[in-house]
Amino acid sequence: MICWVMYDIENDKVRNKVAKYCKQAGLYRVQLSVFLGEIDHNGKDSLQLQIETLMNPDQDKVYIFPMSRQELRDTVLLGQAFDKKLISGAIKALFL
C-alpha cells in the first residue's frame, strides 16, 4: 500500500527519530515533516508502534494515511511537488 506519514512533534530528538524510522521503513521525505512511500501492512504497524513509543500524545500529532495506487495517481500536485514515479516504483533510484 501507499502510505503518508505527517507529523508535528515538538521535541527535536523525537522528531529526528521519527524521520529516521520513516526513512528506514522505505518512505521518501516529500516535505520536512511529511513522508510518503510504499509499505506493507506489517511495516505500517511496526512504524506506528515505533512512533507511539516516542511521541507525547498530549502535545504531538502524527497522521498515518494509507491509500491505494489509484488514489495516488488521482492526487493533484502543484508547484515544486515530488515526482509520483518515485513512489509508484516507475523510477528506480540509487541514493548514495
Q: In what order do the strands lie side by side in the largest sheet?
A: 2-3-1-4
Mean pLDDT, rounded to whole units?
A: 87
Task: Work out the radius of gyration.
Answer: 13 Å
N-to-C order of helices and strands: EHEEHEHH
- What's the main sheet like? 4 strands, antiparallel
**How far is the N terminus from the C terminus?**
26 Å
Counting DSSP E segments of at least 2 residues, the number of strands comes to: 4
Q: State the low-pLDDT regions, or none.
A: 91-96
| Category from helices, strands and their pairing | alpha+beta
The helix content, as a percent range, equals 25-40%
Say what oligomer this is.
single chain
Per the principal axes of the C-alpha atoms, what is the gross shape?
Answer: globular
Report the total helices.
Answer: 4
Explain what the structure shows.
- With 96 residues, the protein is of the alpha+beta class.
- Helices cover 40% and strands 24% of the residues.
- The protein is built from 4 helices and 4 strands.
- It has a 4-stranded antiparallel sheet with strand order 2-3-1-4.
- Strand 2 and strand 3 form a beta hairpin.
- It is globular and about 35 Å long.
- Mean pLDDT is 87; it is low at 91-96.
